[in-house]
Amino acid sequence: MTFMHIGKNYTPPDAIGKVTGEIRYVEDYRREGMVYARLYTSPVPSGRVVRIDAEEALRMDGVLGVLTAQDLPPTDAPEEPMLASADVTYVGQPILAIAAISDEIAEAALERVRVDFEYREFVTDPLESLTAGGPDAYPDGNVLNQTEELADENATIRGGFTRIKWPAAEIARLRNGQEPQGVDYAGGWEYGDLQAGFEEADVVVQESFVTAGTPHHSLEPRSAMSYWENGKCYFHGSTQSQSAVLESLAAMLGIAEQDLVLINQATGGGFGSKGRSYPMMGVCGHFSRILNRPVQLRITREQEYYVGVGRPGMQGWVKVGAKADGRITAIDVIIISDGGPTGRNSASASAEHLSVVYTPGAMRLRNIPVFTNTTPKGAQRGPGQNEMSAAIAPIMDKVARQLNMDRMEFRRVNAPHSDSPVYQDRGPLTSAFMTEAIDKVSDLFNWRERESQPRSRNGNKVRGLGVGMGYHAAGGNGYDGLVRITPDGRIHLHSGAGNLGTYSYADTTRAAAEVLQCRWESCEIVAGRTDLNLPHASAQGGSNTIFTHTRTNWVAAEDAVQKLKEIAAAELGGNAADYSIGDERVFRSDDPARGLTYGEAAALAIEMGGAFSGQEFPEDINPITRRSVQALAGTGLIGVAKDKLPKRGISPGLMVSMAEVEIDLDTGKYQVLDYVGVADCGKVIHPHGLSQQINGGAVWGIGMAGFERHVYDPQNGLPANVGIYQAKLPTILDVPAEMKNGAVDIPDPYNPAGGRGVGEPAQGAAVAAITSAIADALDGHLFNRVPVTPDMIVNHLARNQPGFKPLELNTF
Amino acid sequence: MNPKLTRRRFIKGVIFSSAAAASGAGLYLSAQSAGSAVMERLLTLSINGVDRRVDVAPQETLAFTLRNKLGLTGTKVACNRGECGACTVLLDDIPNYSCSVLTHNAKRHAITTVEGLRNEDGSLGVVQQAFVEELAPQCGFCTPGQVMSAEGLLRANPNPTREQARQALAGNLCRCGAYDHYLNGVMRAAELLS
Q1: pLDDT of residue B19
Q2: pLDDT (tens digit, 9 = 90+) per residue, A670-723?
């Protein structure tokens, strides 16, 4: 199919505002009478607030009020409260907010607040808490007893406390790379005959592993500004999503969705940490209601490391069995997640990576989310999959080497196809062209020739090659699309997708322009404010927007086309089927001269009313969409529909990468010399956007492989990295000056536009290619730890003891 | 880095204005009441070729003045402590972190912010145009800083190598990882200039 818009570059409207500084982020908005709120955060990792004395602060000139947990709806632990009181669970947790006429006064007032705490024992390493006699993060238990599956990665976790302890001997066995015996788990899943799988295997490898938790580092510190008018809350929020935040924030503020106007033109990065509303937003909203003034709450860079959430670290063990032909027969995995104070974890998604990317005949996950007194955990780019991708790549290389197989061939043999039965329910995929991606990246990288060369040593430098694969479930269905044609001939593409920085909110509207066969210049995207009347959309996370919302735009535009034809038939005679569209006209197929322009048809739609102009609408659309259509009714031709297109199984975002690293054996420092990433994301929707995601994901992979981690002082529970330089994200000098990328570019049959998402696996494949290359450079040595830092490399080469216990987490 | 506006000079400036505590607000809090220092408050700043009169506290950073006093919110504050470069502006054509420059130290310099780069006819400046063509930004929060660093480079060296461009942008972090798109943007801008 030849497309007019899909697969072509264009200028998304917000790109101009970003280079001129004219686009506005939350903190760029001002409001008459606006006051500034600041947070008092906990200096202790675990305890209870006994007494708050804010009298002195409240007496200061310019201080308007104080907000504490008592002013807010209660929450039950382990759900994260907006402000903590009964359970203080990490250093940096917000306890109190103070508002003043200037941020200078608000900050000075914080100094006058006195809070007395009751101290409790605390823990920063999950394995310490899992050990019999070890400390627990809460008095009521150490493990989340999850009672509901998460609706999506950003949904509020539901569950209570339980207590699981393992004998010290079994913890030691795990640290030693062996499977613990006779111990309890909190959950898991299994398919196939695991025992038979390992029995028929010619090679079995088992290893323990640990991956660090990592901060999101969104450059825009969390910011909110809200005010109330006539019972409605106007909320400027730094968020990834529109509908998903609207729903959760309205609940947090205790108001109906229709009484909340969410305004978010642009977001300075979210990466999973802003998919839904977060507690700080509730603080701002409630405070502005109580003070009856516009309140701006903007946290500092340091506080961003406390409350900005992070990727959960994991400690685990994996056993892989493979036959001589390379087929993986069984994978058994144990994952102990660092659940932070809420228990949020990605264990199932980590195991999902193994299931989808390596398609084992049998598989088992056993997992435990352990509470720790560390920063709350949340979804971060490829949650679960990417850290597993990083850990497993060198282990899979070891299996391949024991089989005497090329590492790329080994992955190719096990790569998923569209009909591969994957994940818990052994369902198919909407489509998968992973082998094609492997072939393409191998060609671009010249893998066969380079891999067959002996590893050269140049003075104190050695080089290694690596291959990595990334996967993320990248596409949903069932949301709504909305387009509107006005009598002036303008085509308004209403996007309910949030603007998280990937341009997907705009890319997906190109599908509607495609169906309407109109010029892009005739279109305008309507997005960024609830009161612009937007359709119900998915949360913007999980790389799902491209698949999910090209479909919604497609069906809404099809509805508009059908209405254009019906209007033309009513006006010019015949049946709708007698009409075609083109050049922004609807005309008789047998006599193209007889027709209407889109603008003329829109004027007639207003006259004719009913469904044509939105007075009537499908019953199955979401209330958010329904309210938008009702507000727009009578203003033009309305195309609106719920996405009921067929979908079979998981829509996967898939990625394969290859990298070359050079390690300095004297310093342990390494550089990524060469990097190629190839996506299998269906039909490419927006080439520039795809390149941004692949290469940006590679930068993230470099950060995860080598730099980024949460570190806590185990004596006092203090976070040691509360600055960019301490939990370092890669700079331009840490990444290759040029990175190649490509795509398989085969359309997904379950999306009329053909696309699937790819933002998240781009990181997973990159980090895996690098950990694989590091092991390759060091004769296959497995650190089984991510990030791999220079001190680890130097200690290994010098045969020194590492500076940490095996599987130790949240430490240097 | 402008030799006249070093970190040491910034710290000295803060000390002389009797500042006590670093703040997240873009102000350096005074131990005594602000304004007690013998320092003029009403400054004339040359910003984007226009003289702007503004009341400035002794400890105020240029980023704060631009954003909160003059409404020039294109300049972004992401770390407020000289780590990230999102607040980069030009002082006499040289890139500086405006979160680490006291406004009082900027008064004798020609200040250029991202709002000052459009051509007289309103069209995008060369760097801006090139960044759009290469779709350099992702979330866009670091973009004004990247634009200003690129602008500073091209004013000093209109024909840089890719490696020189890389070095010039090394003080500007981008969490989205759009680095090579930014480099493509700088190289395209150099082409447009030639």
Answers
A1: 41
A2: 999 999 999 999 999 999 999 999 999 999 999 999 999 999 998 999 999 999
**What sign does the CA torsion over A751, A754, A759, A765 have?**
positive
The answer to whether residue A621 is domain-embedded is yes
The complex's ipTM?
A: 0.97
One domain, residues A735 and A592 = no
The count of structural domains within chain A is 3
Tell me, what CATH number does A430's domain have?
A: 3.30.365.10
The 10s digit of each residue's pLDDT in A755-784 is 999 999 999 999 999 999 999 999 999 999
B80, amino acid identity: N
Strand partners, A464: A661
Q: Within a 10 A sphere around the Cβ of A806, how many other Cβ atoms?
A: 16
Hey, is A410 helix, strand or coil?
helix
Classify residue B123 as exposed, middle or buried by CB count within 10 Å of its CB (0-12, 13-18, 19+): exposed
Query: Does A159 map to a domain?
Result: no
Question: A732 vs B115: CB contact, 8 Å cut-off?
Answer: no
Q: What percent of chain A has pLDDT over 70?
A: 100
B135 and A267 within 8 Å at the Cβ level: the answer is no
pLDDT for residue A740: 96
Q: What is the pLDDT of residue B8?
A: 66
Residues A637 and A681 in one domain: no
CB within 8 Å: B177 and A218: no
Interface list for B 113-152 with A (CB within 8 A)? 113-115, 117-118, 124, 127-128, 131-132, 134-144, 147
Below-70 pLDDT ranges, chain A? 151-154
Buried b (16+ CB within 10 A) or exposed e, A155-184: bbbbbebeebbbeeebbebbbebebbeebe
* Domain of residue A73, residue span: 31-120
| pLDDT (0 to 100) of residue B15 | 56
Residues 41-60 of B with CB under 8 A from A: none
Residues 80-99 of B with CB under 8 A from A: 80-81, 83-84, 86
CB nearest B179 (choices: A17, A500, A699): A699
Question: Which residue ranges form the domains of chain B, and what is each CATH number?
Answer: 7-116 (3.10.20.30), 126-193 (1.10.150.120)
Residue A772 sits at the vertex; the CA angle it makes with A768 and A778, to the nearest 5 degrees, is 150
Beta carbons of A21 and B183 less than 8 Å apart: no
Q: Which of A477, A535, A474 is nearest to A755 (CA)?
A: A474
Q: Pick the residue of B176, B182, B183, B192 with the most A CBs within 10 A to test the interface with A by mutation.
A: B176
Distance between CA atoms of B82 and A725, rounded to whole angstroms?
Answer: 10
A-chain residues near B179 (CB < 8 A): 695, 699, 732, 735
DSSP H helical segments within A96-147, as ranges? 103-110, 126-130
The verdict on A325 and A469 lying in the same domain is: yes
**Mean per-residue pLDDT pooled into runs of 10, chain B (194 residues):** 59 53 49 54 96 95 97 97 97 98 96 98 98 98 98 98 98 97 98 96
Q: What is the pLDDT of residue B18?
A: 43
Closest-CA distance, B147 to chain A, in angstroms, reads 7
CA distance A12 to A581: 25
Residues A458 and A583 in one domain: no
Identify whether A589 is part of a domain: yes
CA distance linking residue A163 with residue A185, whole number of Å: 10
- Of A608, A642, A676, the one marking the end of a domain is A642
Closest residue in A to B173 (Cα) is A731
Same-domain check for residues A519 and A662 = no
Contacts of A107 in chain B (CB under 8 A): 23-25, 29
pLDDT of residue B5: 61
pLDDT value, residue B40: 80
In A, minimum Cα distance to B164 occurs at A737
With CB atoms and an 8 Å threshold, state whether A735 touches B180: yes
pLDDT value of position B25: 52
Domain boundary among A120, A143, A163: A120
